Design the sequence.
């Protein structure tokens, strides 16, 4: 038996996304939400429901990689934005995901009037939000990470070249008893950004890895401080 051809090819997946408008039609921020590992866009929408009162377009994009979380629950699937069995796989898969996110945003922008783009990521979604913001820095205005980590080791040259990223407002919220993502590591990453004159803040909250009401209160206050507005009813 002879092997005639061996190689690699690409394939495309259909990935759900959902765009919601709060308030009247018009020019306003686009907030892009990324869920945690094993979740989906429905769960993320439920988690951040209080933020939907902000006058903005709210875009939820599901992770492309399906997961069987529990073999006993065959109908219960979750989703992931990237794979991380090795550093190469990690980078290649998160870049592939970032490309299709860019495609979705590029499709949406001609349809609605967008004043700025804000990324909100929880857990795994926070890693993706940081990667997308720092690789698509011309498009990103605000980066908000919840119980995740900014992979500054991938972006040292951009961080140290202060003119590239200094327009992005960066904030991290981490639980002080989080056993999944070490809050001390994220604090160090944010401090590194601040040392290089980036607009970065770190907020530590009581609690673990879960996304709580306290997170949402502080997140909303931070966005309002940037000029976001509540929907006028």
Sequence:
């Amino acid at each position: 038996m002879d092997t005639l051809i061996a190689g690699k090819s690409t394939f495309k997946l259909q990935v759900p996304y959902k765009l919601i408008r709060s308030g009247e039609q018009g020019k306003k921020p686009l907030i892009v939400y990324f869920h945690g590992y094993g979740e989906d866009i429905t769960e993320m929408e439920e988690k951040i429901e209080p933020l939907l009162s902000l006058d903005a377009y709210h875009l939820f994009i599901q992770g492309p990689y399906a997961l069987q979380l529990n073999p006993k629950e065959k109908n219960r699937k979750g989703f992931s934005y990237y794979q991380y069995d090795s550093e190469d796989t990690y980078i290649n898969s998160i870049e592939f995901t970032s490309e299709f996110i860019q495609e979705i945003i590029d499709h949406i922008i001609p349809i609605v009037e967008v004043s700025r783009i804000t990324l909100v990521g929880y857990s795994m979604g926070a890693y993706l939000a940081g990667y997308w913001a720092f690789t698509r820095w011309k498009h990103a205005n605000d980066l908000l990470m919840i119980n995740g980590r900014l992979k500054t080791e991938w972006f040292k040259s951009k961080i140290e070249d202060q003119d590239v990223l200094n327009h992005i407002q960066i904030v991290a919220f981490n639980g002080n008893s989080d056993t999944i993502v070490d809050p001390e590591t994220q604090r160090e990453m944010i401090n590194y950004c601040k040392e290089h004159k980036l607009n970065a803040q770190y907020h530590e909250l009581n609690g673990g890895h879960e996304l709580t009401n306290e997170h949402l209160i502080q997140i909303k206050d931070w966005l309002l401080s940037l000029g976001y507005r509540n929907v006028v009813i």
Summary: Residues 25-225 form a domain with the Rossmann fold fold (CATH 3.40.50.1820).
